[in-house]
């Protein structure tokens, strides 16, 4: 199994949770914009810090399991985790927030 398959499954599951929470709680465009901004910031930081760690040889990826697309030095598959977190954490925060705090 490649990293891309695992990454796609996590992103799809977390996006589905975000959509379901959004529908259930009636979260509007403002929530989605905040979530998108959070994901964008996490992706940029991941590209920077993963690339620095890869350049420092702190870890390596098996190239046979990668698609080969890299942003700076970070493989595109590694961006799935901040994207999934960017969907899941705001969704969980919305679910656990008091009604007036949403």
TrEMBL record:
InterPro entries for the chain: Lycopene_cyclase_dom (IPR017825)
Keywords, alphabetical: Carotenoid biosynthesis, Isomerase, Membrane, Transmembrane, Transmembrane helix
Chain ranges passing through the membrane: 6-27, 34-59, 79-97
Gene Ontology MF term list: intramolecular lyase activity; lycopene beta cyclase activity
Domain Lycopene cyclase: 9-90
Full protein name: Lycopene cyclase domain-containing protein
A GO CC term assigned to this protein in UniProt: membrane
Source domain of life: Bacteria
Primary location group: membrane
Pathways involved: Carotenoid biosynthesis
GO aspect biological process, one term: carotenoid biosynthetic process
Keyword Isomerase part of the UniProt annotation: yes
Subcellular location per the Swiss-Prot or TrEMBL entry: Membrane
Pfam families (UniProt xref): Lycopene_cyc (PF18916)
Membrane protein topology class: Multi-pass membrane protein
Presence of keyword Metal-binding: no
